Structure formats: C-alpha cells, structure tokens
Amino acid sequence: MLKKYRINDGKILQSDGAVDEIMVYVNPTDDEKKILIADYLLDEHTMNSVLDPDELSRLEFEPAHVALIFKKPKNYSTEDEFIFKVNSMGMFLFKNKLIIILPDDIFLFSGKMFNTVTSMRDIFLKLLYRTIYHYLDHLKVMNMISDSLEQKINSSLENKYLLNLFSLEKSLVYYLNAINANSIVIEKLKNNADKIGFNSENRELLDDILIENTQCYRQAEIYSNILASMMDARVSIVSNNLNVLMKTLNIITIAIMVPTFVVSAFSMNVRIPLATYHFAFWVVMGLALLSVAGFFFFWKSKKW
Length: 304
Known about the structure:
Beta Polymerase, domain 2, alpha+beta
C-alpha cells in the first residue's frame, strides 16, 4: 500500500497523488517492489531486509540516495501476551525525495515535532527522534505492568504472573539489542553528516537524538537489571505462599481429626462408660469441643 505526502508551509500533508515528495510503502507488494527497484534504483536485498524483523540496523550509501534500516517498537496488542516486539523501518533519502518502507501500517507524522518541517533531511531525523520516544513510552508501560504483576505475585500461587514477568524480561532484551544497534547507526550518521548534507540545525538535532537514544538505552538496561535481579525473589514469594497454604491446610486437617477421634472413641460397638447415662451425647460433644479448644491453645502457644 502506497501513501504519498508533501510539505506545505512547514507541515506534512497527504498528497492527492500528483506530488510525491514523501512516499510511504506499507508492506509493499511484488509489483511495488519492482517499481522501487526499477524507477528508484533501490537495492533489492536492502528493501527486503526492511521487512525482516530480525534484521540489524544499518546505514548504506548508494549513488543516488542514502539507505537506512532503523529498529522501531512494534505496536503492542493483547494477543502478544506481554511480549513487546521490534521490527524495522527503512528510509531511503534522496536529494528531494524520501521513501519510507514499513512492515505494518502506522501513522508516522504525529506529535508536535512534525508541526514545523523544513526539508526531507529534517523529516528523516525527526522520524528517528520519534522512534526513540516510542521506545520510551513502551518502557513506561512495561514498568507499570511490572509493578502490577508484582502485586499479584505477592498474593498468588499461580505461575501465570511469573511467566508474564519472564515475557517482559525477554522483551527488554529485544529492546536493548535494538536500541544499541540504533545507536551505532546514529553515530555513523553523525560521522557522515557532511556526506549526507546535514546543515547546522540537522547536526544539532542529530546530537539530541544521540543523547536521547543513550538515555533510552540506559533506562531499558536499568529495567532489565531490576527484573532479572528480583526474579529469584519473586519465585521465592510464590514458593513461600504455597508453603503457607499447605501449613494452613495441615492445621485445618488436624483440627478436624482431633474431635473426630473423640467422637469415634465413643461410637465403638463395645460397652463404654456413660452408655446408660441420659446426657451422654452432650458430654461427648463437650469433650469434642474441648479437644478442639485445647488444640488451638497448643497451636497458639507454639506460635505455629
């Protein structure tokens, strides 16, 4: 699917098709790929790499354009079951044109940073900046989910919440790898700023992007270390909850067995004391209640 945009008075507007300054291909078809290869001389391997979620970030220089593969967070859905995944975004920067290839449909030009744009290179860098903020937003959500799961683990005996935490920890590993790969590409962009044609404002924005990406990586690393270091403690909490439950069940079982023994002793088919006594039933019930009271008094005194 192809969407076309243009710059008008510093804003990005969807084009009617006549102007194609910015071309966004969402999961392009085979016919669209052939057009990109034939008309815009995109490298077929690089173009297919954009659609591979396991592809690493990289920057390549072609005769007529700059090709960038950048890792971005995948939009989360409930079907992912606490797995936050990453996929790739491809940007092909020409002198007066920008081609973007995405594996799934998202609205790219949202946020106040796109209220004023001046050139293709400005949009190119701001898309990188927006991707970093997307990571930060997901990290905040992960932290909130982790806190919620911790509270449930404290009172639960199920492994479900622990498995959810394992999924979060796995997601953070994916994010760390992706953010680290992006940082290498950003450094390469900075080192080749003259070759790409970045002006002074672009260079300042690129410095901000590098700083934000470094902070994003450190934040993801902190969350990952906290989850990993506390995982053993959370497993111990679940195990301790199970032990407490078994202890409670044992106490209840013993409490039931003591009066049962008293009643059973007076129910034998042999001659027993009080057999002819008129209030024998109530005496037996009283002894059963006394045995229960004695057991709980003993239990309390031992502080079990």
